Amino acid sequence: MRSPVRPKASLLLWSRMALARLVSGVPLPVPGWRARPEGELVWLVPDESPDGFGAALMVLRRMLKMRPDLQVVVSAPEGLGPQLPDGVLRIDPAGENLSNIRSALRHWQPDAVVLSGAQLPPTLIGETFEAGVPLLSIDMTLPEAALNPGFTQRRLMRAALSRLSRISVRDAASMALIGRLGADPAHVEVGGLMSEPPEPLRCSEAERA
């Protein structure tokens, strides 16, 4: 079996992480977190948009249906906590704060980190990769601005994409775009738009029959 090729070192990504280290605020209150539960654990980091959280919630439910024993920690604002399934742990979003990211990785020791939506947080991706934790991205769609990024932004996006173990994009256009930005086609698949199915329209059962 061929060993996975480690992506090239990125000076831009290293610089972004170094800057995050300088401006990091107070770490998250780790003593307030409950102890890490036993078993395999996934850290789910949804896109902060309503659509992004909805897609992540749908994937979360499917994961738990397939793996009821799986432990999941979700980064979400407090107001979204009640929407999470029973047993799923909520923590405040770490953002790009290096201290918070390291605290979460050290405390929860996730077996995988899953991103969702149109986000490529370089500090989170870089630190998770360096910790040896697999990174996946689901429901990825890139904004129109990504079609013509500046040189610096393109190199940073390339470095982030190369550190993702698996990428599921919404459509073929997004797949082609991230391919041009440097993502390994072998790690990319078109998963379609992730959204909850609509409620069926009411009707007369007699008429439907």
Structural overview:
The model has no long low-confidence stretch (mean pLDDT 78). The chain has a 7-stranded parallel beta sheet. The protein has helices at 11-23, 50-66, 98-108, 122-130, 151-162, 172-180, 205-208, and strands at residues 41-45, 71-75, 89-91, 112-116, 135-140, 166-169, 188-190. α1 (11-23) crosses α4 (122-130) and α3 (98-108) packs parallel to α4. It has 209 residues and is an alpha/beta fold. Helices cover 36% and strands 15% of the residues.
What letter string, H or E per element, gives the SSE order?
A: HEHEEHEHEHEHEH
Distance between the termini: 55 Å
Percentage beta strand: 5-15%
- As a percent range, the share of helical residues equals 25-40%
| Number of DSSP-assigned strands | 7
- What is the general shape? globular
Individual helix count? 7
The quaternary structure here is single chain
Unreliable runs: none
Q: Main sheet?
A: 7 strands, parallel
CA radius of gyration is 19 Å
What is the typical, i.e. mean, pLDDT?
78
**Strand order of the biggest β-sheet:** 3-2-1-4-5-6-7
Derived from helix and strand composition plus strand pairing, the structural class reads alpha/beta
